[in-house]
Amino acid sequence: MLKILFIMLLLIGGYYLGHKEMNQDKKVKMLYVTTSMIALICSFSLLFDHVISGYTTFLYYFFGRFTKRIISQ
Amino acid sequence: MKMTISPRQGAFLAGNIIVTSSIVALPQSLIDLALQNTWLVPILLSLYVFVIIYFSFFLAKSTDSIKEKLTTEQTNWKVKILALLLFIYIFHLLLRDLRFVSGFIEVTLLPLTPLYIITMLIILTSLYITWGGVEVIARFTELYYFLFIGVILFVPISLISQFEVENFEPIIGLEMIPSILQSTFIGLNWVGEIVVLFLIIGFIEPINKMKSSILYGSLSGVFLLFVIIFSQIAVLGPEIVRYSAYPSYTLVQQIRLTDFLDRLDFILVALYFPTLFAKFSLLIYGLNRSLSLISGVKTKFTKIPLSIIAGILSITLFTDKADHFEFNIYTWSTLGLLFQLMILLFMFIIVKSKTMKNDTINNMEKNNQCKDETEDSGQQNPKDEQYDKEQTKTEEKQGNRDGESQSDSSKS
Predict the structure, then answer these.
(1) Is the entire prediction scored with pTM above 0.90?
(2) What is the ipTM of this complex?
């Protein structure tokens, strides 16, 4: 849980650094908040092992096997 | 403030992006396939570098058009698709390299430190470098890549007494050609990483030296890769290298200069790491720039969440080192190559459309210029003369009619 807390602190620190620019331009604020939310959601995967590693396995079944066929392994 | 980087800095960025991670991660996989003839592979890889650079820019008559296209903030759908492809490509590249470096540190340097701490430290350092913008990254790379060249050239010189020519035998035979080509296929996407530089070529001043600087820089990177592979085969032999996790580190550990300098590898690794940070900072900058091209919002603050996402996913996407090795060597060889080809294709389309547009504008300007010249010289087009004659005739007729109508009215 400390890992997620550290990430949250980093994101809040980033917001504090750029709050002037973000208050002037709403688009910047929206973009920062959206990317921060994605970062926060991703950070919860640190608590659970093997949650999103299926993505690399999926890629391996398509592209990794193709490479292995090319290099004759 | 207008940000610019010199052609030399552009060259160093190109060399740095090719060689830094490949010098540790790649030789083992290449030597596993091509054994003692792997030193030929970088020569074939340099051909791919030529293809990438010339295919991307050969249609561009003037490099100013590319600069105009890639530095403008008002983007069309072609540039947005190119930016999206670059975003996905750079994101995967960052994930792969982050996990590779944190794994390398965990195994060789800091075995008791958690992977999360190592990754976060790498991210924060790279973020600090990239915060200053592309100029700072270029200056940082210029400084440390120069030292890095010295470090790499120092390795074979200091190990020359341990070179064994027998390790290169049996030398090239026809039966080895397939294995050399297979090995080259694995290496293609590693040298093709220079496509990331498409995002920053607009900042190179003077722009007319851009193509040559990227080419020379990339070739310097491939040459350094050749030096390391050659030294590994000569000193360690292909059989040891193919079963070693980090053969470049093993090679550096072989250096024995004096009795008291028994851990020279730490010094060399310390000089190597800044080049990795330079690469990460360039990748984070590339991520942010491509996001700003897609969204149309220009800000540097999104670098923080983007790099954090990359850091977290680099830990969670790969369950163990074997999983990462499969992605690094097998999956990414095809997937990365596919991305590069798509990026090249879109770059080709953008440059071509811009060149065609420029050609039509030039033709229109030429036509206008010719017209002005003919008017100035007093010569007229035969068509224009005919038109003038017809015009005077109608005017005369009109005049006659008016005269007739006036005489009629006076009579009445």
Answers:
(1) no
(2) 0.94
